[in-house]
Description:
This protein is α/β, with parallel strands linked by helices. The protein has 2 domains: 4-278, Rossmann fold, CATH 3.40.50.150; 292-409, 3-Layer(aba) Sandwich (Glutaredoxin), CATH 3.40.30. 35% of the residues lie in helices and 19% in strands. The chain contains 17 helices and 14 strands. The chain has helices at 4-21, 35-40, 51-54, 59-63, 71-74, 92-101, 114-127, 164-174, 194-197, 200-204, 213-223, 238-246, 259-266, 313-327, 341-346, 348-357, 380-387, and strands spanning 82-86, 106-111, 132-136, 149-154, 175-188, 211-212, 226-235, 270-278, 292-297, 306-307, 310-311, 331-336, 364-367, 370-374. Strands 1, 2, 3, 4, 5, 6, 7 and 8 form an 8-stranded mixed sheet that branches. It has a 4-stranded mixed sheet with strand order 12-9-13-14. The longest helix has 18 residues, at 4-21. It is elongated and about 110 Å long.
Amino acid sequence: xxxxxxxxxxxxxxxxxxxxxxxxxxxxxxxxxxxxxxxxxxxxxxxxxxxxxxxxxxxxxxxxxxxxxxxxxxxxxxxxxxxxxxxxxxxxxxxxxxxxxxxxxxxxxxxxxxxxxxxxxxxxxxxxxxxxxxxxxxxxxxxxxxxxxxxxxxxxxxxxxxxxxxxxxxxxxxxxxxxxxxxxxxxxxxxxxxxxxxxxxxxxxxxxxxxxxxxxxxxxxxxxxxxxxxxxxxxxxxxxxxxxxxxxxxxxxxxxxxxxxxxxxxxxxxxxxxxxxxxxxxxxxxxxxxxxxxxxxxxxxxxxxxxxxxxxxxxxxxxxxxxxxxxxxxxxxxxxxxxxxxxxxxxxxxxxxxxxxxxxxxxxxxxxxxxxxxxxxxxxxxxxxxxxxxxxxxxxxxxxxxxxxxxxxxxxxxxxxxxxx
Length: 421
């Protein structure tokens, strides 16, 4: 079995050599695939970029292009986006992305190979593009905060990781809600035979480490992504496989592996593909509707509870409580049968109650249209419970908000002959 550490070491060495030479076995080679393979078919590397894009970049960035697609087009970048390229290599996709997200946007490149990082920064300086930053680090442990990236791109790199599920999880972590995962990579229609998957050259060449199409979709879903999709763009047929096999060192081929038979087995299995997924947007804040409390009381000439020399303490307390809860922003209202008869007539619950119990059954208290009390006024504690307010947060009942009229003030309080204010 090929260990994760062996894979990382081989990949790092392979790409360090590519960065140092800035040629990667020839100007059109990709992912460690030998010249002979690329001479036979060139679905990768520079051929995926238009002349207008190539003209914008330093030659060294183009020479070190080791991808299998053009994720900058796939991602549909827009001005203001913050984009991250996983395994950014010599920086071709980061530099192109930086132009697409300007003004206001930023492009980050992440690579674990110091030699590639040095090449990328040199290419950045030559390009004159400033909204770019290259980071040294692993795509399984991205040195970026949560929820900070709008778009993740990558060009034939995720397959190189020995822990793709962790790459998907890290991608989900750093993407902002609603962020997009849009990469080009190698995939398989079905798993490779173990003896083929063990060839290290195929690991560093983007083949042996590729997931199956089903595994890609499942891995993205397990990480939390939605709307995951996969679109094959190039399928390796017999001619491409023969060219690939011709580029392998015979010493790397396990004993007993018949190349001709392997080509027959793998015809159409290996593909380059566009892979897309989305991090769900943050849920919209739930609309909080305040509980509506309505108190329907009988016909009163004095609903304050202070009527000349007579005091109705229940009404005094309720009036004070009504003022308190109104000040707290509670949706609370009282309806007097004498002054507001339409409120009774328009509410079916109240109308039905009056038909059965008559006005003698009032007051009636409803919460969101449901009858909760009849025959008496609710206390402050009951109103707090109806409104969903913790009693510990309430102000104490304290003294009444109303002044009781002096017994001698009947003639001056404008209460009339009945004494009702």
